[in-house]
Amino acid sequence: MSTTPAPAPTVRALLARRELDLRLASATDDAALDAPVRWVHSSDLADPTPFLSEDVVLLTTGTQFAEGAPRDVDAYVRRLRARGVRGLGFGTEVVRAGIPEPLRTACRRAGIPLFEVPYRTPFIAVARAAAEAIAAQAYARRSWALDAQRSLALAALRPDGFDATLAELSRQLRAWVGLYDASGALTHEHGPRERRTVAGSAGAVDAVPRDAVGAEASALLRRGGGTGASVRLGGLPVALQTLGSGGQRGVLAIAGADLDQDARAVVTAVVATTGLALEQRRLTAGAWSGLRAALVDLITADRLDLARDVAADAWGSFPAAPYIVAVADAAAPTGAREVLDHDGATGRLFYGRDDDGVLMIAAAYDRPLLDAIAERLTWRIGVAVATSDADVAAARDRARLARDRGRAGAVTDVADAPGDLLDDLASAGARIRAGAELDALRRHDARHGTALEATLTAWLENDGAHEATARALGVHRHTVRARIALAQRLLGRDLASFPDRAAVWTALRLAP
């Protein structure tokens, strides 16, 4: 990250302070010398770990080692290592001359930097030096954060402010920054993409595992609600945050930077401004929605040719025939416009609001696109195929029927829609008429305890066969014959004729 140079609070930084005259007393690796130090504490307790926090440097005069065996020294150092102590300073010439050799050996084995604090250097001077380094680091980070936010504000004022802000954030963090839209597609990216060695990894790794980051972004969008995540992907730290109202407008992703408190404050400011920009884009999208609705009106008026020309001028292209025509529920899920806009920008999809839903048109071979939209948005969508422009209006009506029979999160083809033709005729008026048709039959059953309606239903289901109906009902076939004859008289129908049989069967299906 870009910061004002300031000595980092580390063991190496303490050793570099000449006025302290500290001397490294045990061999150790660079990582241990450069690990961050949060504080310096002094103690001569045999076990100071209950009183220590992680990432501290411990100073001691060695009183606890006056008569200690080497194994006691080993146990002491192991406890320090387990507690997360970053270094051990030994004050010489206080209770003993020099550093005990068993302590050198134990620190070397544990990987804890051991350094000598000469008699003329008080422990308080070492603690003060560490405190100064910590304060300088904190001041540098706060100064960087203020400068970064100022630079980001200036970037936002540029003509390409949206993209410029993301580019400036990448520069300030020295990290890859990506923006995913509501559909989970990567729309903007800035920063390093080359392969590089990451600290702590076994070797070179891809600087940005964009597929894995995209999968995490899509998962966040599905959850919504202003959520965020911090993960490691491909050996890199990755931070993600949803944007906009309900966390459904997009995701800001940052890869390759460990974000401290000040960096997170800068990112939060960008999340707020970017989310606001996305919301403003959504508001201006209202005009485009009006145009789309007008084009849908043209399509339903059999003027697809004109609608195609206008759509091609506005968005670059229009799907080619044969078409798959889809109708989705009018109550569009959050983020639906962004998802549809993404596919519409590629020319694969046209969409617009219909009188009772959302009309979508894609090429017939692009059915998987609609499946993905339904699953992504948990939307109920019905589809039908139109082989030419002239078939689109009729296909829309069939798709609407399929939608009404379908389920959320799935695409239902009109040919696979549950129910049958009679279900489509089941209007309130038809049900009333059917009940009136059966009224005499039902009143007789209620008055005399007969089962004429049940017998008639079973008889029609068995193609008018008395023997099969008798077996189904568990009665004698002569009983069936007598009941059917009585039902004919009550209904005033000739059940030997197909039209009357069909009328009675329809009444039985539709009557409430």
TrEMBL record:
Domain Purine catabolism PurC-like: from-to ranges: 26-134
Record-annotated PucR C-terminal helix-turn-helix domain positions: 454-510
Superkingdom of this protein's organism: Bacteria
InterPro entries named in the record: CdaR-like_regulators, PucR_C-HTH_dom, PucR_C-HTH_sf, PucR_dom
Signal peptide interval: none
Protein name: PucR family transcriptional regulator
Organism for this UniProt entry: Microbacterium radiodurans
Taxonomic lineage from the root: Bacteria, Bacillati, Actinomycetota, Actinomycetes, Micrococcales
